[in-house]
Amino acid sequence: MKKFLALLLAAGMIFSAVACVDNTVSDDTDTGVAQTGDDTTAGEAVEYVDPYADIEDYDELSAAIYEDVLGDFATAYEAAKAATNVSERYALMAIAEAKLMEDALMLPLSSNGGLYAISRVAPYTITSVLWGNDSYRFHDAIVATEPLTTGDRDEMKAKWAELKGTGGYEAWAEQFLADKGYTIKDTYSIGYASDPQTWDVLATSRAADSEAIINTYDGLYEYDMENVLKPALAESYTVSEDGLTYTFTLKSGLKWVDSQGREVADVKADDFVAGMQHMMDAAGGLEYLVQGIIVNATEYLGGEVDFSEVGVKAIDDTTLVYTLEQPTSYFMTMLGYGVFAPMSREYYTSQGGQFGADFDSSAESYTYGKTPDNIAYCGPYVVTNATAENTIVFAANEAYWDAENINVKTLTWLFNDGSEATKAYTDMLAGVIDGCNLNAASLEIARGDGNFDKYGYTSLTDATSFMAFYNVNRSQMTNVNDPAKGVSAKTEDDVVRSNAALRNVHFRRALSFALDRGAYNAQTVGEDLKLTSLRNCYTPGTFVSLEEEVTVSINGTDKTYPAGTYYGQIMQDQIDADGVKMIVWDPTADGGIGSSDGFDGWYNVENAVAEMALAIEELAAIGIEITAENPIYIDLPYYSGSEVYGNRAQAYKQCIDSAFEGKVIMNLVTCETAQDWYYAGYYTDFGSEANYDIYDVSGWGPDYGDPATYLDTFLADYAGYMVKCIGIY
After folding, report:
1. Between 587 and 38, where is the model more confident?
2. What is the CA radius of gyration of the chain?
């Protein structure tokens, strides 16, 4: 999936005092390179000439910059993608990601979770699988009328680990709660922070859209609460001996309904064909997932073949066949995201939808996906109310194939922009919502009234990686949707200088090493938990492990890794071999299992200053002088309507300003509303629209169980969705 994630204004926001230690190494420290203020040239000063100034075509410009800043990664990743052995593929992908981390075009910040919380939802009754969108399917959630105590929650977690994969956890959980005196209800209410921009799951890559729409349809297979992949709309499937043909048999009697619950069509195998073609036509950022996977997907997207030649066919109403370009070990794990969602062909055309060259979402007659009343439903819910920045109500779909077995009959989303620090906690106590994270203000109250000791727990982290991105090709100085918003104070010369600086890998590494991510994270999660959710790489280090022994080359030296070796260990070995001073993997963490989370492997002011000295020397050689009298200005947009995010931005600024003794100055660009903040970067479609030098709002969550779900986002030529975050494509 293109699961492009915003660091949304969750109910769990905490701040603490900004604590960024200034242990800056002075400029006369022996770093072995020219220091700030040195004469780096003899004779006349060098005049800076933009190496890309003569490239007028945007695509050519993007390609040139991509090769310069991501060339090593692209080469290593190409080799990884060519591997036919799964374990060799994982090892080579880890090496490629090491190059990506070393390029320092983004700084890992945190994952989801790792927060203090209180909830009425029984643990693990919503799937916790790390990829796809199934973790946002809420119909199986078991919700009590009272918050679960910490002790009861711990007992349930232990039992889940024991019963996982047996199919027995749901019945056990219901009985356990009944025996403990809880009453189970059939409603579930949660807070949300960003309205869907579309209700067409096949035309979007934004989490705020897909996380809502996922509750309106089913896929072929879905993960259950024990993280087992189970049939949903499909009844069964088979795979050909060569691994290239997947044949699914659909359940009979499946129905599409409208938002009023009225039947509009039967669910047919052809609806998956229609969905795939519409996804490619809409080009909403999802299409790259099937390129190189489904036969002729790339060729159709390039206009080279008719869709009839693409490898998805309806043999009859209940038989669906996918033909793959090559055996794909993770294909079944891909089915949990919207790229494989069905779409009623009949309903779509009734809403003005067309296919192929005739597709035009801007046509006056095209209404599909504009509102919840303009889609058809085959999932557990229909949307009965969608009031912007207020309420979204999902009511049980009576025509749903498994209607008798859903636990939550009414799912309600209630808007919370985070401006009131204790609102979520107050609403949770009042039963308005069924759970919340505890920020500093609400944590203090919860500790005072005894609720934290009785009900509090630390939520699990997930595989979502939130990152700070560096814009290496900035041209936008205001928000594209509203030139009056997000206005930069930088001069044209400032922009030229900052672009040149950010294209220097040592400058980017310096910025990354300078941020005390613990102090930064503490502003939103509190001092107690500031390291819990920290992430140190893009793909979590434990995301995959080798299935068999593999030997790969690390800078020309063969190294053999035994079966069971985690991805993160190989990544760290390559980084160490390259002599870059970042730590993305701690083999002693998590009781010796190892982890890429829970520690700060980047923050080191001494390393930051050394990298900055290298950057200053290299930039001086091309005519960019960096001194305290002539600093580089870096813009960071932030949401000023939230005290929490204001404090976080100040923490970032203090770290950058102090580490380099005024040679780099961070400008905090005020965004008065959350929407203004998102439009600085999250809501943009192209790198040229990015209105920032550093942006800390976005991240990525995995769509399937292979590292490519992360690394493909940094492919060139518009294939990599996150590349736009660095200002190109």
Report:
1. 587
2. 26
Instruction: For residue 105, give both structure tokens.
Output: 């075009």
Instruction: Kindly tell me if the per-residue pLDDT of 479 is higher than 80.
Output: yes
What is the CA 33 to chain-centroid distance, rounded?
Answer: 38
| Look-up of token digits 């979007």 | 204
Cα–Cα distance for residue pair 414/433, rounded to 1 Å: 8
Which letter does DSSP use for residue 282 in this model? Answer: H
Spatial distance between the Cα atoms of 664 and 509, rounded to a whole number of angstroms:
13
Query: From CA 687, how far away is CA 718, in angstroms rounded?
Result: 10
Q: CA 417, CA 9: separation in Å to the nearest integer?
A: 6
Phi, psi (rounded to 5 degrees) for 574: -70, -40
* CB-based burial, 241-260: b 16+ in 10 Å, e otherwise: eeebebbbbbbeebbbbbbe
Question: Is the torsion defined by CA of 714, 717, 723, 728 positive or negative?
Answer: positive
Average pLDDT over residues 356-367: 97
Q: What is the pLDDT of residues 161-205, one digit of tens each?
A: 999 999 999 999 999 999 999 999 999 999 999 999 999 999 998
Q: Which residues contact 578 (CB under 8 A, 6 or more apart)?
A: 98, 102, 555
State the burial class of residue 404 (Cβ atoms within 10 Å of its Cβ: 0-12, 13-18, 19+). Answer: exposed
Could you tell me which residues are beta bridge partners of residue 410? 187, 395
HSE (CB half, 13 Å, CA atoms) of 287?
20
CB 234 within 8 A of CB 218: no
| Residue 523 pLDDT class (50, 70, 90 cuts) | very high
Q: Which residue has the tokens 């209607």?
A: 403
Measured distance CA(386)–CA(174) in Å, rounded: 31
Tokens representing residue 72 in the block: 């090593």
Token duo for residue 720: 């990599």
Measured distance CA(728)–CA(305) in Å, rounded = 28
> For 227-240, what is the HEC assignment?
CCEEECCEEEEEEC
Distance CA 384, CA 402 (A): 20
- CA proximity to 649, closest of 669, 673, 672, 679: 669
What pLDDT is recorded for position 13?
36
> Is the separation of the CB atoms in 686 and 729 below 8 Å?
yes
Q: Per residue in 20-74, pLDDT tens?
A: 433 333 333 332 333 333 444 444 678 999 999 999 999 999 999 999 999 999 9
* Whole-number Å distance between alpha carbons of 294 and 311: 6
As a whole number of angstroms, the distance between CA 110 and CA 120 comes to 25
| Spatial contact of 344 and 374, defined as CB atoms under 8 Å apart | no
| Average pLDDT score over residue span 239-247 | 97
643-659 and 505-514 helices, crossing angle to 10°: 120
Please give the average per-residue pLDDT across 305-322, as a whole number: 98
pLDDT in tens, 614-663: 999 999 999 999 999 999 999 999 999 999 899 999 999 999 999 999 99
DSSP 307-372: GGGSSEEEEETTEEEEEBSS--TTGGGGGGSGGG----HHHHHHTT---GGG--TTSTT--TTSSG
Residues 6+ apart with CB under 8 A from 289: 1, 2, 334, 337, 339, 703, 712
